[in-house]
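debug: dumping io for the single-chain case to check the tokenizer round-trip. Nothing else runs in this session.
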Amino acid sequence: MTTDNCLSPGPCIDSDHPSVIDLSESLTSAQRDDRENAIALYYWVRDEIRYNPYGLGLAINDQKASRTLAVGEGWCVTKAILLAALCRAANIPARLGFADVRNHLSTQRMRETMDTDIFYFHGYTSIYLEGKWVKATPAFNLSLCEKFRLKPLDFDGVEDSIYHAYDELGNRHMEYVNDRGEFPELPYDMMMKVFHDKYPYMFEHLEPGERLESNQWEDDVDREIAGH
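debug: decoded output
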């Protein structure tokens, strides 16, 4: 895959949206190189956009970078899309990568809704820096990592930034079980087919357009931590 189709705006990576452009310009500088600018964009998305899978919306418009920016929270896929859009707005090639992971950071409500501990179509951002593609995973904000005693994911623009296998106490955290590849835009239809196949409970028990209550996430996280 060349970098040519990883600079243009797309349906979800709407890097031409005014709010995305304005933020990208405010966080980057012509006095810094692409690697330094990408690092600044990564940390902003990681920590300023709260990770909240309960706010997951499944319509294609819910995946747009501009929408995630507007609501101030997202899940792994939408945060990866936002980071890709900010990079493209700064003329840094970026694309989306996906993998299936066994996630040990979860809540009782999520386990019941998903009926599995595997998160299908986990999303990350792949950024072209200094002649190579580098993986960046901005999903978990620092405060969430501190609560769960996870090692926060840092990004230096040189080495891949992917989930740690263990938390700070040596407990299992994340296991990559399947690589789904990298794409210049969200493969929405493919993702939705996988979700329908792998999360039947969620689609059987939630009405179209319905989602878990977004404001319950923090309370469920606190209960999960107290139970360990």
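debug: round-trip ok. The CA atoms of residues 50 and 73 lie 4 Å apart.
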